[in-house]
Each structure stands twice: as C-alpha cells, then as structure tokens.
C-alpha cells in the first residue's frame, strides 16, 4: 500500500543523515549542509536563457521548489511539493558578480560558499555567475542543499540545466526519485543489520579520533574556506600507474587516502595533537554502475576506516590496513548495514542521530572526511553550448571535523579540493598541505 | 567425487550476478562487455571477488587481479575455470 500522496516525497535514510548534519552545522553557526560545483566556461552564456531553462526544469520537476516537513505522528521528514506553483516563487536565485582580480574572485567565491540557502522557503539550489574584468570567460557556481541531491545527482542535474544531457520526453519526476519508502519502522533483519554498523562505530570509538576544530584554543568564525589543486594529464597517468602498482587493481582510493591521511597525521602532530586513532568516513555511491539515476536523493553509504597513528607512518601500512578493512566491509556486509542504520535514522529526530554518532566517537564525528566522486563522465564538457575549461567540487564539510578532502577527475586530470574551517588552519598551511599531498602522490611514498 | 563446474555454468552465474547486482539493467551487460569501461570500481570488484569466493569456494590470487584478467565476464569466468581445474 502506498502511503505517500503525490505531493509528499519521503526522505530516504541518507537524506535524513544529511538533514542531521545540516542541523548540526547550523547549530554551530555555519551555512548548513550544502555543496557546490564550479564550472569555468570558455565564453559567456545568456543569463535569460539560463533562467528560462531553470524554470522549465522546475515546472517539470516540482521537487526543486519543495519544502521540508515532518509527519505529525512518526516525525518522518519529507518534501512537500507544490505542483501548481512549480515555477513560481522567487527561488532559485541567479545572481551576478564581477571580479576585478584574483583576490576579488577568491573573496566572492568564499562568500558564496558561506551563504545560507533558505531551505524553509524552498530555496534548494542557486546559481552564481561570476564575470571577470573584460575577459570573455565566466564562472558558473551551482550551490545546492545536500538533502536534495548528492554529488552524482547534482552533476547530472547541472548537466540537465546546461543541456549537456538530453532529457527524454518520458523523463518524469518520479523516474528521478528513489521512491518506495514506507512510513513503517523497519523490523527484524534490518535491526540486526543496523546493529553491525553501530558495533563497528563503537569499535572505532575505542580509539577515539580528535579533530583540530575542538582542540583549537580560540573561537573560530563559522565560515569555510577551500583550496583546489589540479594535476596535468601526464601527472594523472603517473599517479594512476603508481596507485595500481602499490594499491592493486582499481584500488586508487586507497592510494589517495594514504597520501592524505599520512600528511594529516603529521599536521596533527605538528600542532601537538596525538589521537589514539584516526577515522576516515568515505562515501560510497550506491547507484548501479553505468547510471546516474536517481537524481533527487542521496544514494550513498558511508564506510568508516580506522587507522592507528603507527599505521599512518608509511604508504605500505596504510594501504594494507585500508585493503583489509575494505575486504572486511564486503564480507561483513557493512555497507548494507550502514544503509539499514540510515533507514532507522529516518525515525529519529535529526539532533538525536547527530548526537548518537558524536557520542560514539566520544565527541568527534571523525578526523577528516574523504570523498571520491571518481572518474566523472564527460557530461559537463559543455554547459549551455560553451566549452567547460574546469570543473571544481566544493563540498561543505561537516563540523567537526571541519576539514575534508575530495579527489575527482575532470578532463582526465586529477583534482583535489581541501575544504576547512576558515582560520582553523591558515591559508599557507592549507597550500602546504596540498603541496605535500601532491608530492606523496607523485612519488608513491610519504616524503 | 567432486564435480567440476563447466565454463558455461560459471559464465552464466557470474553474468547473472554482474547484471543484477553491479550494473544498471539498461546497460545490457553481455559476457564480452568491457567491465572497466562500463564503470567498474573498487567496491564492485570486491563484490565480484567475494561472490566468487562464496559461490565457487575460490580465492582469486592477487597476482591475477589485473585489467587483463578482469576485463569481462568471459575473462573472469575463464580464470575461475582454470583455477578450479588446477585445484
């Protein structure tokens, strides 16, 4: 029996987790659980055409203007969709900015990252267009609420906006939703499965990680900053070869984690912080391979990897530990357990779930967040008929830890984005961190 | 006496698993489809390896886990068959 009315779209477990993190971040004064994709275009697009395109999509997919509500009896969050007013209302905003120089550009981008979306009034995404001097180039930034889409869904949606992928006539909102969620509490095997996930969290909590955020001895402004670094195609190939040689076939994530975590533990120790353990949450795309659907929901599980400080002393030890834990996760079905745990969290108010996770880590969510959107397909090689010169992913990192790193590939070039709480580390430290991670990746060892 | 599993049976079982559990049905994965080009990632590969371990009671040696051997369902089935024969 379908309990859901046409204008009521349920959250899945991963959406609920994103809502919990949104609550957590807003409580600390941050903009919320949002993320960005930045496109650098060769040429300028027509603003009226972009606005028309967005409104046409909003009419077709009214969830783009939905607001979050909760069930009266079970407190389940859901999207309330107003079909009639699909394209009405003042959202999404398409704002225009002008930058005179690089410094201006950085400031504008940082302000956009820290602007809070008004999700209670249906602002689930927005566009910022940045023009620069007399240049004919421009940047397009899409910021979206993480409760609506994950990075893969957002990439696909942006490609729909930019007409980079065809929208079939029969492509309906229902076809882009995950669907089939009931309002009933999961029972039996789901509980047992979920327990495995919580047991693993507790096990990691025995060697609790510590974040820079909670150990900083001065008040930090609730703002995020980021740095991006990119490799050339030949450097990317070198890294890919080294990753396969030392990490094994298709095991690039382990190689990236080794480079990032090796340096992260050094950074912590240089600041006099010596945790008993480090935990890296890594998101795993649950979509079937070869598909980017569904679009309007989070389709990710989180796999937590734990490392002792000793394991982070060399590439070899990190890779061995990662591979052992990844195999264990598959054998123990920890990914399905994580999905079950998230399903249960649909029935728990956001703040309780966020608190439970934090308690499990004795005050910390994790030491660093890691994501790997993988080899992005060439959906966004053009945007509204303009060639895309670069594509950057800028996720909002949950605080704490307040520091996260994303590896992704665009135009066969590896990119890394480091996001952190502004002034938790200095811009020079952030640049230095990325520079050393680069060297680790290029040499295949911690140098 | 233990009966050996035929190459055709291995291929059919593996293809069924890959089609149902790993790839989007719209892709229409066939035995000779290049799995890596179709989007295989590390977790999917691990899933396949664990499936092989459970279904055929066989652990693929690390040296055999490479692009040549894991190219398609056909290639992996051939590998499983060889390893089972030499058991």
Q: What name does CATH use for the topology of chain B?
A: Non-ribosomal Peptide Synthetase Peptidyl Carrier Protein, Chain A
Number-wise, the strands of chain B total: 0
Query: Low-confidence segments of chain A, ≥5 residues, pLDDT <50?
Result: none
Q: Strand-and-helix sequence of chain B, N→C?
A: HHH
Count of the domains of chain A: 2
Q: Can you tell me the CATH class of the largest domain in chain A?
A: Alpha Beta
* N-C termini distance of chain A: 60 Å
* Radius of gyration computed on alpha carbons of chain B: 12 Å
Oligomer kind: heterodimer
Write structural notes for this entry:
The complex is a heterodimer of chains A (447) and B (87). Chain A is α+β, with helices and mostly antiparallel strands. In chain A, 37% of the residues lie in helices and 22% in strands. Chain A has two domains: 2-179, Chloramphenicol acetyltransferase-like domain (Chloramphenicol Acetyltransferase, 2-Layer Sandwich); 186-374 and 395-443, Nonribosomal peptide synthetase, condensation domain (Chloramphenicol Acetyltransferase), CATH 3.30.559. Chain A is built from twelve helices and 15 strands. In chain A, helix 5 packs across helix 10, helix 7 crosses helix 8 (252-270) and helix 8 (252-270) crosses helix 12. Chain A is globular, with a radius of gyration of 21 Å. Chain A starts with 7 loop residues before the first strand and ends with a helix. Chain B has a single domain (7-85), classed as Orthogonal Bundle (Non-ribosomal Peptide Synthetase Peptidyl Carrier Protein, Chain A), CATH 1.10.1200.10. In chain B, 25% of the residues are buried. The interface between A and B is medium-sized, with 20 and 24 residues.
